[in-house]
Amino acid sequence: MIPMRGGALGNLVAETATGLAKRENEVIHYSADTGALLKTRTASVVTVHGVASRWIDVARNPRQEFIWRSRVGRAMASSDRIITVSNSAADDIANVFQVDPSRIEVILHGVDHPGESEGISQELREAMPDGPYALYLGNVEPRKNLIALSEAFDRTPLADLGIPLVIAGRMAWNFEESAAAIDRARNVHYVGFVSNEDRLALMQGATLFVFPSLYEGFGMPVIEAMAVGTPVACSRRGSLAEVSGPSWELDDLSAEGLSNSLAAALQDSDFLAGAAQSGPEWAQRFKWDDSIDAHIRVYRSALEARL
Prior knowledge:
globular; glycosyltransferase activity; glycosyltransferase; Glycosyltransferase involved in cell wall biosynthesis; transferase
C-alpha cells in the first residue's frame, strides 16, 4: 500500500518515490489512473479506467483535463503494463495516448452476488418517498447526466406515472449544476451517500434502476443492480454497450427522450418481470475470481519484463 500524503501533489510525490525504490520480485500496482512520473525501478502496472474526454467535454474543466492527461500519460509511460476495464476503454486509451494496444490488458471487474438485504435503515427511510421509486446510485458529476434525468422526472409522460426518482451518492467533482437541478426537481429525492447495507436495500427495492451516463469506463452500478434482479435502464455510451446486457436501452439522453423512454420501461410488464431472471444470469459473467487470475497473469508478465 502506497502511503498517501494528502492532496494531488503529495500523492504524486508518494507514487513516484515508491516507484523509484528498487524491490526485487515485487510489483507495484497503481490502481486509479495515476502513478509515477519517472520510469519505475520496481516492476509496475497501472490501471486506467477510460478516457471520457474523447467523447464528451463535460467530464472535467480544461485545467483538470490537462492535469489528468499529463498524470495518466506519465503513469503509463513509467509502468511496465497497462490494465483497463473494458474493450471500449482500451480503444480510447490507445487512440488518445497513442499507446501500443499490445501493452493494454482488458480485465473486467467482478460483481458480488449478495443475499437478501435486511431492509432500508430507519434513518434513510425518513428521507425516502412513500411507495415505488426509481433509483440512480453513483457519483453526482456532469458525466452522469443527472440534470437531464432530474428534469425528465418532472416532464410528461414520466411525471404522470407518479414514481419519483431517488438519487444516492456523493457530490463528486464539478457537481454544482447537477446539484441545483436535483434541488429544483419536484419528483427527485436526494438522500446522499449511503452505507453498503442501504445500497443493497435500495437496489433490491427499486422498481427501476436508471443510469443515463454520457460515458463509462465500466459501469459497476449497472451490473450490481442486474445481479440482484432489479430492472435496469441505461445508456450505451462507452463500456455500457459491452456490459449492459438485457437492460432497457436509453438512446435519447435529453430530458424529453429520457422521460419518454423511462415511462415506456416502467409500463412494460414483460420487461419488468423478466429482469428477475435475465439480470442475475447476465451478471454471472462478471466474476472476481476471473479478475484476480487475470491480474496475477499481468503481474507475472511485468516481473518477467524486468528479467
